[in-house]
Amino acid sequence: ILAWNEICDRIYIWDYVVNFAHYVPAFPNLTVLRENMRFFAEHHVRGMYPEGAHNTPLSGEFAELKAYLLAKLMWDPYMSSAKYHKYMDEFLAAYYGEGWRMIRAYIDLMCSFTQERHMGIFEKPFNSLAGRTTQGFIGATYTCATSAAATLPVFLISKLTTNSLPSCAIAMFE
After folding, report:
1. Are 172 and 126 in contact (CB under 8 A)?
2. Mean pLDDT of 12-16
3. What is the rounded CA–CA span in Å between residue 149 and residue 97?
4. What stretches of the chain show up as alpha helix (H) in DSSP?
5. H-helix or E-strand containing 50?
6. What are 123-146's pLDDT values in tens digits?
7. 91 Cβ contact list (under 8 Å, min separation 6)
8. How far separated are the first and last CA of the chain, in Å rounded?
9. How far apart are CA 65 and CA 92, in angstroms?
């Protein structure tokens, strides 16, 4: 972008904000979305198309939240971190109900694992989290989620069981 900025005054970005090979597993890029949008605005990008998980019924990790935050960022790419996180918290509270703080804690934890690392859009699941996640971590996260499940809408918990991990999570760590 820096090189293009030197020779062109009309830059348009098509940015992929999801892992296209693996929609559902963690792709913790929520903190970098604001940083990227600010970078684009500072370098005179005139148009932005952030493409997420649009063609699957699984929606991808936090696809609705990402779409909401990206829409806000397109209106205000220079928003402060505090304002960005306020929007995130408002969305999570509206979407997840009383258990939203646990979801936010999960997001913060996962994003902290990838702050110093670039993630590719076709990367194998959990490569970006190598050495950070374990079966114990997933178990603890699952226990936390099921304890909050009573506050979630039925459609979000219809496939959860209280005594086992989802088989897809186990398969990704074997």
Report:
1. yes
2. 88
3. 10
4. 2-7, 30-42, 63-75, 81-96, 100-113, 135-148, 154-157, 167-173
5. strand 45-51
6. 776 666 666 655 656 666 666 666
7. 64, 65, 68, 69
8. 39
9. 8
